[in-house]
């Protein structure tokens, strides 16, 4: 007996083979993916088959798979209590799918649970003098014999012309006496089928409600699913919507599950590793739903779909700070800057930070406005807030001014990478044109020019990493670990800027082969730097290596 | 015919035919979906003798969605906003049933006037007043019924104090003249004194609980 009660929050583990089964509505891989797979081998970094520390174990579940998990719970309860599946479902929904609590409460007082869940009427409200109806109280549902009726509601046709005159039915809602079909729950509150249809449809479509009560005033009975199905008639779209609402409710009740936040997506992700608050202090659970590789989201927060390498709490702190300080920092977001030499306005286009003034040909870095010559070669310190160099300046200024400047330093770089990442989308379009050009002017095939696309993707990805490394660096306490962190950050930034610049170059047909080699090599390198950045930061979290200069929610 | 229109037309006709209930419905414009409902204040309450008007809008998905109602007539009641006329009543929200009608809903409003629910208030200040001193609350509600809903003059029987047609701001706020005068004498503006004392619920037993310093402190706030 106790076995029946022993399963815990991880109950879906027992259905593993069921979930592994090919699911019927999973999307087929596009032919693009197949080609890319072959091509991707060019970029494989050797020896990385093991799970990386910045990755989290997560499993995408289709709606059908979640429905099967729900069904397993329903069947379980239905079996223990000896009630119809639709009743078990209402009971579970009422208890937010907490099986233990339901079983406990049901054992304690089944009638009370039935009444609270809208499965049965309270004794004093049970319909009287209803000749043909069963008394709607809990014992009715506990009969398990073969004669168990499949429905706890009535649907009947008023025969016309009715043999009994007095049976002329006037629906109390639409006042229509020509309606021939009526429906009622076990409370026997009778309404015409078209009113039920309008009511149920509105509840589902407009209110997103999955617990739909009887229409009678003060009646607390909840319509079981077969009744809703019948009320909806052949409106399969609304029925599907209803199923979706049930799945969402189930998912929201389970800490191991999260619904994909992308619009109209019906997938769920299971990620038990990120189910607790404390887990989120050492991992960044970036997951992908099964519907599309683009449906990437953070299992732990809604800050941003992928804020690796920084943990949810710190990412949230940073965004809050940016929000609070947005007025002071707003000017930085502007799309234009003045050339530091001739003061003419320069618009940034493309993601590269290496700017050349169209007028005076002065080359400078978009981020720090310093001459590019110092960046391109050995010394590249644009990622650091050089505490020593600014020491003198800071002495002259007030403390608050200094802390604002410190913030602006990180914010500047954070916002810049975000903006550059967005501009990468333009770069993407330009790149597609270039790829077409290449196919015409060279011998290269469509697959062979994909290196451009891959490079743009990589630049985008790394800029997102870089962006969040600045949020993290802002909160990192000074010391060795932070210095190593910023070294990795600088290496990645340098590599990304180089690759980005390579992509902005105009294409000379004679140089395509060498460009391809350069871009491919650089892409592999950038990928490697990004791996190092993510991996090392993730390991730091797991080891508790990072020290913070502010209080991080949940950490001492 | 559209089911909503058929139902609303029938409801309006039923209401017209039923003279016993004293519930009235008028079309506001040509649409039967914007109505003005009214009913007399229930007997034996501070609202007795008043005529209360309610703005009614019938939503697109009526009767599956509740009617939208708010008082046009100003009412002093814990479940009605003294400023906007918004009503806190369960059947206008979650407890709505498609079986309810214009008439039955207006009757529910009428009975809400008989039995306030101060624990689920729409107007917190009024609710506090109700909880602190029932008699003071009732005289304020009666005064509001007089000046806003055409009810009898509560002062008429004890000699007709206060000039006719002139509104007494102190009585509207449900305060004692002596208390307002006391703080006005300290050099504060009368309107501000009324405002602060009303917010502090300076009534009944509270008068002994709230120190003079506390009131002055509030009065000094900008
Ligand atoms: Zn009907
Ligand atoms: Zn019912
Ligand atoms: Zn998705
Ligand atoms: Zn997160």
UniProtKB/TrEMBL annotation, chain A:
One of its GO terms (biological process) is protein ubiquitination. SMART domains: IBR. Residues 130-153 have a biased composition (Polar residues). Residues 1-35, 126-160 are annotated as: Disordered. Coiled coil: none annotated. PROSITE patterns: TRIAD (PS51873), ZF_RING_1 (PS00518), ZF_RING_2 (PS50089). Keywords: Metal-binding, Repeat, Transferase, Ubl conjugation pathway, Zinc, Zinc-finger. This is RBR-type E3 ubiquitin transferase. It comes from Neolentinus lepideus HHB14362 ss-1. GO terms for molecular function: ubiquitin protein ligase activity; zinc ion binding. Its EC number is 2.3.2.31. PANTHER family: RBR FAMILY RING FINGER AND IBR DOMAIN-CONTAINING. The keyword rRNA-binding does not apply. Residues 167-386, 171-214 form the RING-type domain.
UniProtKB/TrEMBL annotation, chain B:
Its EC number is 2.3.2.23. SMART domains: UBCc. Keywords: ATP-binding, Nucleotide-binding, Transferase, Ubl conjugation pathway. SUPFAM superfamilies: UBA-like (SSF46934), UBC-like (SSF54495). This is Ubiquitin-conjugating enzyme E2 1. One of its GO terms (molecular function) is ubiquitin conjugating enzyme activity. Coiled coil: none annotated. Belongs to the ubiquitin-conjugating enzyme family. Residues 3-150 form the UBC core domain. The active site is at 88 (glycyl thioester intermediate). InterPro entries: UBA-like_sf, UBA_C_fun, UBC, UBQ-conjugating_AS, UBQ-conjugating_enzyme/RWD. The keyword Transferase applies. It is an enzyme of class 2 (transferase). CDD domains: UBA_II_E2_UBC1, UBCc_UBE2K. It holds the Pfam family UBA_3.
